[in-house]
Amino acid sequence: MIIIIAAVAENSALGKNNTLLWHLPKDFKRFKEITSGHHIIMGRKTFESFPKPLPNRTHVIITRQKGYQAKGCIVVPDIKSAIAVCPKNEDLYIIGGGEIYTQSIGLSDKLDITLVHKSFDAEVFFPEIDLEIWELTSEIFNSKDEKHLYDYTFQTFIRKK
Where are the transmembrane segments (predicted)? Predict the structure, then answer.
């Protein structure tokens, strides 16, 4: 199954200056639990925003840069090549950024979204989730607290048949 996983603001904002716009420890924990042991597909800028590769995951990096290398990672030129290098019988996760989400939403089976209940000034945005195509199957609301500045909801969407 091809799964997009993303934290998205109410105005579809994802990030600015190659960084996230919020810090939600429970979302990071959920991301780690869901993606550990799997192939994760991302654009080069997303990969470069990490201090180091994420442990216990196979990184597939999409870039148009010729000769780009990242130790221990698979580098490919496009989304179709990224999907092709992943095992066919396992879940794979698309983790960003905005351009990669836009290219892959039409190829995906499931969306794991953390909806951050605020709008942000951003330069990268998530594509529209068309409810004619996607069915919301699960929602878990989380209130802001001392470690989370914003309310947020874990949402799962499945592609309608």
Answer: none
